[in-house]
Each structure stands twice: as C-alpha cells, then as structure tokens.
C-alpha cells in the first residue's frame, strides 16, 4: 500500500513531511535511481507559480545531479499538460511537475510522467516509495545540497503552444472568450494561445505573487469569471486551476458547466463525425447519473472508474475509448494527448462552438444533471471504510433513504485528509440523506 503517493502524485504542505527539504532530497535521489534503472539520463522539470515551487525544484535538481543525472532541464512555470507533452515530444526519460493543482498555495506536490508522457503507474510509485525510504536519513541527503542545479536552456513552451494551436481548425474568430488563469500556470500560454487563434480575449487573475494561486479564483471559484462574462458580453468563460489540468466553463447566459457537460458535448460531436473510437466514454464514480442516462440515449456506453485521472486513462486504454474525464474538469482527449489538459479541452470546446455556429448553452441543452449534495469530513487518519461498523451503518441508512431514486458515493480524498460524501437524485430533497444511525 502506498503511503506517500495519492491519486495525483505526492502532495502536502510545503516545508512539512513529505515535502520538507530532507524528504524532497530523498525523493530526488530515488527518482535518479528510478531513471537510471530505466536506462535513462534526461529529466525535465516544470512548476506552477507557488512560492515554494522554486526551492522544491532546486532540491530535486541537486539530488538528481548528485546521483549522476547530467541532463536536468528546468522549464520554469508551465501547465502540467505542457510538461507531459514536452517530456514525450522532446525525448526525455522522466517529467517532474511541481504543483498541488487546485490546492491553496501552502500546499505543493510532485507529479511524475514517464518518457511516453503518461503518469507513472501505481506499481512504479510503490517502487519509488521504497527507494525514497531507503534514501532518507542517509549522508547523501545532506551531500546532494551542494550539487549543481538544473541546466537553464531556451524555453520549450513554444512547442506546446504550437501543438495547442493546431487543434483549433481554422481558428476561433469571432469568439469572445474570458480566461480566468487562476494566478497560475496558464497565465502566459492561455491568453497567448487564444489571441493567436483570433479570439477576442478578456483575462482575469493573471498577476501571480506566489500566494494568490487558486485564491478566490479559477475553477473552484467561478463568481469572478461569471461577472466578467456578463460585463463584457462574452460568448464563453473559461476557468483553469493552478496547473491548468482542469477547466470549468461559464456560458454566455451565465450557466456554470463542469466536466460532465464537456463529455456530453464532445462525445456527441465525435460520434457524429465518426471519431469516437470504441463508441464509449469513461467517467468515474463521481460522474453524474444523469450523464450516464443521457449518453445511453445517444447510444454511448459509460465506463466508471475510481476517482483519479490516471484510472480514467487506464480504462480508456483498456477499452479503446478516446474520451474520458471527471466532473472536476479533468478531461482526457486520448486521440490528442496523454493526460488531462484544461487548455486543450477549452480549445476543442471553443472550436466546436465556432464550427457548429452554436452557443455552449445550445450544445449542452440535452443534458440536465441530477442535483448533487457534496460534503467532506476532515479526518485525522484514513481508517478503511469497510473496517468501521459505525460508518458502514451510517452509509447503509443513508442509501436506504435514497432507495432507487438516486446514488451515493463515500470515499477518502486522495489528496487531502477528508472523507468525501456525494449523494444525488432526480429531486434535491431525495439527495439529502440524514446522517443518523
């Protein structure tokens, strides 16, 4: 069982275990060992705009260099999907992204990508964990701090920008688009891309200071983007999270759309064009029941997985599906990229609007999500749910109240010390089970 890796890399409060300086050095030593056993020697590092990201990058780079990894190249600030794309396109053996995604600035994380641009598998993560533990409390942890840092080289971001540009067909003119770049990694590439494609662009939350990433902005806080859409009569509002692997949207009428809406719109379009390989779509246990029913009406089966984009991708590769994602806005376009890419998803949605000559409201009119109730209980430790009779009794009682009119999911967060609870049904009242034994 993994102890350091969650559903999306290693994550925690910067400066505290497992992201204290000593453990970060041990992680770097373990990653050098991992790259070496794969016969590799080239590592690419990217990061978001958190104040802790530069020193974490520095410690990892020093540890890698100490263990003989000579080619360590630092991209600086770049979206996670950009790091994954460039790792594969430029022939690197390992990509390291330093980001805690949608979490507040105090948190940070380390995400790993193989040379093929895919997130490292659970088995590989467990192997790396064992190596980290073996390196902790060794003299090498202190010695690696004196090693050279990463090579500074010309930015490779232009390659990623060109890749994104090619996905927009003939361009996005005359679309009026609002971008909430979340004071994060999308701040440079996002506006530059949409301007290049001919859209009229309004940008908000584009002044990162190391601490304002995700603060009352981005995909978790759509209020500011909604105001910008209304004030500027925009056709579409796009909100990213800190590392831009997620995206949510605001329609021209002010409606908020999540990843389930995007799966609905894109799957119908791709099926009509004959490009929905396997004819299936992959979601998670959190995918709205109404989407599953709407897709069935379209003749599109939905496959469900545990929460986490890596599990979505695994199911896509097994089933042959080319489209999958999560309500959070983590969407994988498997015929175009190896990981969730919020900017790419936004471009494909915008391209669809221009090509079809419709509004985003029109494109999702056939899908009405069932109301959901989401809650989270903070926990000191994650006791397996099946080992808690009290919790099982509460869950059983709540599910009995929902009966066949809805659905309930109880799970631990893979990135935070939370027990997450979701209930949904056709009627909101039916989706509010009473938490009483």
Automatic annotation (TrEMBL):
Its EC number is 5.4.2.10. Keywords: Isomerase, Magnesium, Metal-binding, Phosphoprotein. Pfam families: PGM_PMM_I, PGM_PMM_II, PGM_PMM_III, PGM_PMM_IV. GO terms for biological process: carbohydrate metabolic process; UDP-N-acetylglucosamine biosynthetic process. Its cofactor is Mg(2+). Belongs to the phosphohexose mutase family. GO terms for molecular function: magnesium ion binding; phosphoglucosamine mutase activity; phosphomannomutase activity. InterPro entries: A-D-PHexomutase_a/b/a-I, A-D-PHexomutase_a/b/a-I/II/III, A-D-PHexomutase_a/b/a-II, A-D-PHexomutase_a/b/a-III, A-D-PHexomutase_C, A-D-PHexomutase_C_sf, A-D-PHexomutase_CS, Alpha-D-phosphohexomutase_SF. It is an enzyme of class 5 (isomerase). Residues 378-429 form the Alpha-D-phosphohexomutase C-terminal domain. It comes from the Eukaryota. The keyword Metal-binding applies. This is Phosphoglucosamine mutase. One of its GO terms (cellular component) is cytosol. Residues 2-136, 159-254, 258-366 form the Alpha-D-phosphohexomutase alpha/beta/alpha domain. The lineage of its organism: Eukaryota, Metazoa, Porifera, Demospongiae, Heteroscleromorpha.
């Amino acid at each position: 069982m993994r102890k350091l890796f969650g559903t999306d890399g290693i994550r925690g409060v910067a400066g505290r275990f497992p992201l204290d300086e000593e453990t970060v050095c041990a992680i770097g030593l373990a990653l050098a060992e991992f790259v070496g056993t794969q016969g590799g020697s080239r590592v690419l590092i990217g990061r978001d705009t958190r104040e802790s990201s530069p020193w974490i990058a520095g410690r990892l780079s020093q540890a890698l260099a100490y263990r003989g990894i000579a080619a360590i190249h630092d991209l600086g600030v770049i979206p996670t999907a950009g790091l994954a794309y460039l790792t594969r396109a430029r022939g690197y053996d390992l990509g390291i992204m330093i980001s805690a995604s949608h979490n507040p600035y105090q948190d940070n994380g380390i995400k790993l990508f193989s040379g093929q641009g895919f997130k490292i598998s659970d088995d590989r993560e467990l192997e790396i964990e064992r190596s980290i533990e073996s390196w902790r409390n060794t003299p090498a942890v202190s010695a690696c701090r004196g090693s050279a840092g990463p090579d500074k080289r010309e930015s490779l971001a232009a390659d990623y920008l060109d890749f994104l540009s090619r996905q927009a067909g003939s361009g996005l003119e005359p679309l009026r688009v609002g971008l909430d770049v979340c004071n994060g990694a999308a701040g440079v590439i996002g506006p530059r891309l949409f301007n290049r494609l001919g859209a009229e662009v309004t940008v908000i939350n584009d002044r990162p200071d190391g601490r304002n990433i995700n603060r009352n902005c981005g995909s978790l806080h759509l209020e500011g983007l909604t105001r910008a859409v209304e004030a500027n009569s925009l056709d579409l509002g796009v909100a990213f999270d800190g590392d831009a692997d997620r995206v949510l949207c605001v329609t021209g009428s002010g409606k908020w759309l999540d990843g389930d809406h995007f799966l609905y719109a894109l799957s119908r379009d791709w099926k009509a064009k004959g490009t929905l390989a396997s004819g299936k779509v992959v979601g998670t246990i959190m995918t709205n029941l109404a989407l599953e029913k709407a897709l069935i009406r379209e003749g599109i089966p939905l496959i469900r997985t545990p929460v986490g984009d890596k599990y979505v991708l695994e199911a896509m590769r097994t089933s042959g599906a080319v489209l999958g994602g999560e309500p959070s806005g983590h969407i994988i376009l498997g015929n175009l990229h190896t990981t969730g890419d919020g900017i790419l998803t936004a471009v494909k949605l915008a391209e669809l609007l221009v090509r079809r000559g419709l509004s985003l409201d029109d494109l999702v009119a056939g899908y009405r999500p069932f109301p959901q109730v989401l809650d989270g209980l903070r926990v000191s430790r994650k006791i397996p749910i099946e080992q808690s009779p009290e919790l099982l009794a509460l869950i059983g009682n709540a599910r009995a109240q929902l009966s066949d009119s809805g659905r309930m999911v109880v799970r631990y967060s893979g990135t935070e010390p939370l027990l997450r609870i979701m209930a949904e049904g056709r009627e909101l009242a039916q989706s509010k089970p009473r938490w009483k034994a």
